[in-house]
Recover the amino acids of this structure.
């Protein structure tokens, strides 16, 4: 049996119905409203982070992080250095398969420039329970200025699937008085 085309044009081809045109117009206008709201929310809602991004090689980033760890480690925890950098300083957090390194300790009410970069491939920085999310790429460093306002223990989970131990890629930030 040969395959032959259908005798009629079966696909849909009709003029736009008025109701559908109205719907498309409403959806389009709403999309525009939401686009400009993104800009508005950045200032008014404090929802979208202000971050800086720079190019950096994984090797150069690892070197900066190591220098910070060497200078400001205060103790060890489960094989991880706990680092307490001086307020106002540049702080380097490494994302790699499959860890956030090192553990950081901040002072409440102080400001820090938190750098984030990956040494291998893409990870996702997700700070819990405050829900701050940043993509972390190799070759780029993202910098966010953080000023923790509550004492406590914060978890970092990886929210970009990065391989077999993705679910174990967790880190920690302490905020102390
Ligand atoms: Cu790193 Cu998922």
């Amino acid at each position: 049996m040969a395959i032959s085309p259908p005798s009629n044009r079966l696909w849909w081809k009709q003029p736009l119905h008025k109701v559908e045109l109205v719907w498309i117009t409403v959806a389009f206008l709403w999309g525009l409203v939401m686009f400009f709201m993104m800009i508005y929310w950045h200032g008014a809602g404090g929802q979208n982070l202000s971050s800086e991004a720079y190019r950096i090689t994984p090797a150069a980033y690892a070197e900066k992080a190591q220098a910070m760890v060497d200078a400001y480690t205060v103790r060890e925890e489960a094989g991880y250095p706990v680092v307490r950098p001086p307020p106002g300083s540049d702080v380097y957090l490494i994302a790699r398969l499959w860890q956030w390194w090192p553990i950081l300790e901040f002072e409440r009410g102080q400001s820090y420039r938190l750098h984030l970069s990956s040494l291998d491939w893409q990870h996702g920085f997700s700070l819990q329970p405050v829900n701050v999310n940043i993509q972390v790429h190799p070759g780029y460093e993202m910098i966010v200025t953080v000023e923790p306002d509550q004492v406590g223990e914060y978890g970092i989970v990886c929210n970009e699937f990065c391989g077999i131990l993705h679910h174990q890629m967790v880190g920690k930030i302490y905020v102390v008085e």
Observations:
- Residues 18-44 form the longest helix (27 residues).
- DSSP finds two helices and twelve strands in the chain.
- The helical segments are 18-44, 58-72.
- The chain has a mean pLDDT of 91.
